[in-house]
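LAB NOTEBOOK - FOLDING QUEUE
OPERATOR: T.R.
BATCH SIZE: 2
PURPOSE: Compare the predicted C-alpha cell outputs for two unrelated chains run back to back under identical settings.
PRIORITY: normal
REVIEWER: second-year student, initials M.K.

ITEM 1
FIELD SEQUENCE / FIELD STRUCTURE:
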Amino acid sequence: MNDAFMGMRISSSGLTAERLRMDTIASNVANAQTTRGEDGQPYIRKIAVFQENLQNELDKSSGTYKTSFKGVKSVGVVNDESPLRRVYDPSHADADADGYVMMPNVNIMNEMADMIASTRAYEANVNSINAQKSMFSKALEIGK
C-alpha cells in the first residue's frame, strides 16, 4: 500500500522544487536593477539547484541493492557565475569615475523563459496529482 502513494510523493517533491525555483526567479526579477546591496555590491543572480532523491535498499532475496526514485530534492540556491553588466550612465549614483555602473547579471528575458518553464512543470505536477486522486476515487467506487 505504501507504493500506491509513491506517485503523489514524487509529484509533491516536484511541486516543492518548482516553487523554490519560481521564488528564486522572482527574486532575480525584483533585483534586476539593484546596483548596491547590503554588502555594497550589485545583486548577483541566483539559481535554484536540485538533484534526484534516490534510495538504495538491500533486496534480501538476491542480496543486491535496488535503487528507487523518491522524487526531487532541493540542494540549495547558488550564485550565477556569469559576469556583471557594465553600463554607461554617468548620472547614476553608483557610477565610477569613468561613468560606468556595474549592473546585476540578470537578463529579464531569460528569467521570464525560466519562469514559464517552471510554471509549466508546476502545472504538470498538479495535473499528475489530480489524475492520481481521480484514479483512487474511481478505485474506491468499484467496491460499492
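ITEM 2
FIELD SEQUENCE / FIELD STRUCTURE:
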Amino acid sequence: MILDRMRLTYTSAAVVGAGTVAVFLWWWWTKRQKEALPSQWRKVGELSDLIAFPVKSLGSVRMTSMDCMPLGLQSGWMRDRTLLVIDLNGHFVTARQVPKMVQVTPSFSGSVLTLSAPGMMSMSLDLSQIKGKGFRVAVWGQIVAACDCGEEPARWLSRFLLQEDVGYRLVYYPLQYPMREIRKKNNGFLLTKNDTGAYPDATSYCLINESSVMDLNTRLEKSINAEQFRPNFVIKGAAPYEEDTWGWVKIGDVIFKNVMPCTRCIFTTIDPTTGEKNPQTEPLKTLRAYRQITDPGFRKFVGDSPVLGIHLGLRSSNGTVRLGDPVYVSESTERLPRPLITPP
C-alpha cells in the first residue's frame, strides 16, 4: 500500500557485540508538518561539561551556565562559532589545514575578546566597537555575512599561524539569527534552516556521550577526551551509543531535536593541547572500523565518514542550561527505531 505521507529514516550507529554496528533509522512526518513537543520524558543522565568555541577552530571556552539561542550557546558577548578566520580570498580557514589554530585560547571580559597563544603576547579586541560595512565570506561554499575585526587581530593571527604579518583576518558574525541554507550533503536529515548557526559546519549544537567516548578509548592505544570532538554538551550517565536512538533531548528545561548524526573528519585527530595530528590518524581510523553508516540511502550523504555524537536543533524557546542539569529523552523515541544490524 502506498502511504500518502512517507516517513524518512534517521541514521545512527551503536555497537552491538564485538565490532558490530547497529544503524538506526527513525521515521518522521514530512518536514512541512509542524512538530509537536513531547509530553513524557525519561531521565538518562546529566550535563557534565558545557563548551563553546567562539572562534571557529580555535580553543574552547567553558562555563558553568550558558544561554541556548538560535545561533548556539551564548553568554553575553560570547557566542559559539560567531567569529571566523579567513584568508585573503574570503575563504574560511580551519584547523584541518592549520592544526595549531586549536592552541589559540579565547577568553571574554564583557564585550572584550582576548586571544592567547604559546610564545605570543595576548591580543584584546572589543567586539562592541567593530564597525564598518559588512561583507560576505564563504563557509563550505556558502555565502555568510561578516564584519572585519580590523588590523590588529589580523596581524596577530597571521604572525602566530603563518609567521607572516599578513595572510589571515578575523571576522565577526553581525546577525542574531542563522542565514545559511542547509548544506546539500545534509538535506537527507532533519535539520532546518533555523539550525545552521553562524559559522559551524552543520548545526548550532552538538552533543557527546561520555560513555561512548569511554567505549572508544577501550579500542585505542592512547585515550582521548570528549573535547577532541568539539561538542557543546557532554553528558554522563547514559549507556554507550544510546544517544544514537534519541529523537528528542531536554537539558534542564530546554528542548532539542536530534536532527542528524555527527559525522567525523580529520579534525578529530588533532590534539587540542599540542595542536598536533595523530600520526596513525586516530581516533578516526578506529571509528571507521565500527561506526560507519552503511544504509545506501544515507551513505550518499556521509560517504565513509564515521559518526559519533548527535547534532541538535533548538525546538523550545531560548533558555539557560547549567552543569549538572538533568538530561531527558522523550519516552516515545524508544519505540520508533528499528535496528538494521551490519556484519562486523
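REVIEWER COMMENT (ITEM 2): The chain has four helices and 22 strands.
FOLLOW-UP: none requested
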